[in-house]
Specification:
single chain, mainly alpha, 0% strand
């Protein structure tokens, strides 16, 4: 579509010139001008995650589940129970105060926290892209509805003008017909005043 059409649409729908619009608003005006559906944002469909990003998403999914909490609790209970029950023997590998367990827990927390944060950052980025796409679709829908309202108002005004024009023509025909009927009646009283001769 032409730049003049885009300028007219932006002025009509947003009350500003096309140059004064944000890039998102311009894209919405462009979509309205070409009358194509918005579609799904390709960035939200394509899975372009690298191996590390997929791994961090898996770690976050597992680490943030009840299955992980229950399994981890069972492992801790077994670890501590085994070392308490076999204390003093050769089978105890981490006697009470469980120093090796503390080291393992600290290491797990030190590794798991940044990995989960990487996944959350990626998820937040995708959520921002999805929100921006939703904003474009919602803004376009709102502007299209406003555009339809304007078209309906124009059609209603044209229909009302046509209806008034036809009504005036009918009224003129009724008045003309009434005047034709009155003219012969006016002649009758004169004829009634004459005496037969």
């Amino acid at each position: 579509m032409s730049a003049a059409h885009n300028q007219q649409l932006s002025q009509q729908l947003l009350g500003r010139g096309y140059e004064a619009l944000t890039p998102i608003q311009r894209s919405v005006i462009d979509l309205i001008a070409v009358e194509e559906p918005s579609g799904i944002n390709p960035a939200l469909i394509i899975d372009d995650r690298k191996f590390g990003e997929r791994l961090s998403d898996k770690v976050a999914a597992v680490g943030g589940s009840w299955a992980f909490i229950i399994a981890f609790g069972l492992i801790l209970a077994l670890w501590m129970g085994w070392n308490v029950l076999t204390r003093g023997g050769k089978l105890a590998f981490d006697p009470y105060p469980f120093i090796f367990l503390n080291l393992m827990l600290s290491t797990l927390a030190a590794i798991q926290a940044p990995v989960i944060m990487m996944s959350q950052n990626r998820s937040a980025k995708r959520d921002r892209e999805a929100a921006e796409h939703d904003y474009v679709v919602n803004l376009r829908a709102e502007l299209e509805i406003m555009h339809l309202h304007d078209k309906l108002d124009a059609l209603r005004q044209a229909e009302m003008a046509d209806l008034l024009l036809r009504q005036n023509e009918l009224l003129q025909e009724i008045h003309a017909a009434a005047n034709v009927k009155r003219a012969p009646r006016a002649a009758k009283p004169e004829a009634a005043g004459r005496k037969p001769g």
